[in-house]
Amino acid sequence: MPKNESRFDLIEISLNKKLMLKMQGKIMGKRILIIDDNENHLDVLKETLCYFNFEVKTLASGNYLMEEVYQFKPDLILLDYILPGKDNGIVLCQQLKNNIHTHNIPVVLMSGYHLVSEQFSCCDGFLYKPFDLNILIKELATYLDTTIQIPFSYV
Fold this sequence. Notes:
Blueprint lengths: L6 H21 L3 E5 L3 H13 L3 E5 L5 H8 L3 E5 L8 H9 L9 E5 L13 E4 L4 H11 L12
Parallel strand pairs: 1-2, 1-3, 3-4, 4-5
């Protein structure tokens, strides 16, 4: 054992390696498409999800959603309720759920407007903004049918 390393340091390093291997093994290759008109939200979400080894694509509007879904082939879609353009999150969610090629992709709607989740019968889940990133990760794990360990250093 090196002079400056204690037995506890080695245990911590070992646990971190196991944790990282478990994370990579469980979620490597999972793709998430995020649609939100707020660039700050997109940046934070992308950075957070990339930290957990998700492959992330972002869109600032839903104008080309179906084309992006066909090209990117996401495992899950995070969709904002209010978006620029003619279609809001509910309309886009309904389009996804009514399409034979995309109806199985879990869609989680996000909104800063409280008491509106009752309108979202088309989606698989709902998150109020601002949300705790730990809750986001747990929610995603539910819909992706996987286990995501949150390292202590992230909390």
